[in-house]
Design brief:
The protein is of the alpha/beta class. About 40% of the residues lie in helices and about 10% in strands. It has 13 helices and twelve strands. The strands form three sheets. Strands 2-8-7-6-5-3-4 form a seven-stranded mixed β-sheet, with helices on both faces. A three-stranded antiparallel β-sheet has the order 9-10-12. The chain has a two-stranded parallel sheet with strand order 1-11. The radius of gyration is 23 Å and the shape is globular. The protein starts with a helix and ends with a helix. The site of 3-selanylpropanoic acid (SLP) has 7 residues, from loops.
Amino acid sequence: HHWDSHLDHHAVADGPDRIYMDYNATTPADPEVIRVVTDALMDAWGNPSSNYLPGLKARDIIYHSRDAIARMVGGKAADIIFTSGGTEANNLVFHTAVEHFKKSMISAEGSTSSKQTNGRGSLPHVIISNVEHDSIKLTAENLLKEGKADVTFVPVSKVTARVEVEDVIAAIRPTTCLVSIMLANNETGIIMPIKDICQRVNEVNKQRAASAPRILLHTDAAQAIGKIRVDAHELGVDYLTIVGHKFYGPRTGALFVNDPGKSTPVYPMFFGGGQERNFRPGTENTAMIAGLGKAAELVSLNLAEYETHFLEIRCYLEQKLLAVFGKDKIHFNSHFPGSNNLPNTCNLSILGRGLQGRRVLSTCRRLLASVGAACHSDRGDQPSHILLSCGIPFDVATNALRISVGRSTSREDVDLVVEDLRDTVEQLERMN
Ligand SMILES: Cc1ncc(COP(=O)(O)O)c(C=O)c1O
Ligand SMILES: O=C(O)CC[SeH]
């Protein structure tokens, strides 16, 4: 009932006039993805563990999908572990890091205890940024609250909106076992210096005492894949999160692990029938895995074209906004000197009283976008903590709009959306 009542209040007319520009929230499945998902549901419904044709057909699809996903992120097929999505993949990394710390302490001390803390009472220490997605932020906060880990939330620079390498290195302690920094932020589109961070942390690993745990390196690449080139080995990460519904794939995901169970530890969160080499058991979701593999193939084939299109459309959007509103009326919240952005993301504020982001969007007749992360859409007019963390002033952050363009977004769409924003602002300012 709650859901119905929710729809009553917030039902958004979703007519043909609406123009979707919230692709960082989610993307529609590519038609080719839908085709392979449907085909797999129809023809490859067998249990992949079964040794007869229906099972073998499913196993074959999973094999090829794993290979395509690995190639998309520069790894080997064995490096890919399928999960239900990005949230599970991120949680698996944190669970593994805590277990890795405990095992490291036991072997270092030769003690038999498997306590949460070693003889010296130390807890595993993890380092994340202060602009991570909730599936990282709340996972870390929960470990902290339950006394299972210490956490350092490294603040992004208010000059660059990026996590600075020196700040990550300065946060390292003898008990640090995980550094997890997102590759690109979902609201600002700012790209983080993951390659530099990994290089420096691995230098620390080389100099570490044998008694200290190796610092594991993870990046949540959810928002970067399908928009910029992502190569796990070039970045130097041990783990990399893959989220299908951000690159026109299905609502499923995977975790890249560099040589799982050998070079890089993986400790399962749950136990079952042995699937995914016991790293993530459960009868495989063959159809969704097929779709994820097809989406990965399309990224590997077309990324340069996608990226060029995104950049052209986003730049046109920014030019059009400036032309219509003027530079004194618009603040671009993703423009930071020296920082690189995702090509498809434009976070902006239309300055002025009564132009709160949510109020503007709920008045727009065409634009479908967001003020920030979709999973924060119930936060009223509270400005995004991510924008405030980047040093965006409160009143400017309150008026933020996150517009993220997609593969099918056209210049005509931009013209219509900017006209919609102009009419909306005029209407709201007449009401002031
Ligand atoms: C940066 C980031 N990380 C993780 C996720 C979580 O992925 P999922 O929704 O598949 O759990 C998302 C999107 O929802 C995201 O934008
Ligand atoms: O940024 C988004 O909208 C997806 C994560 Se909730």
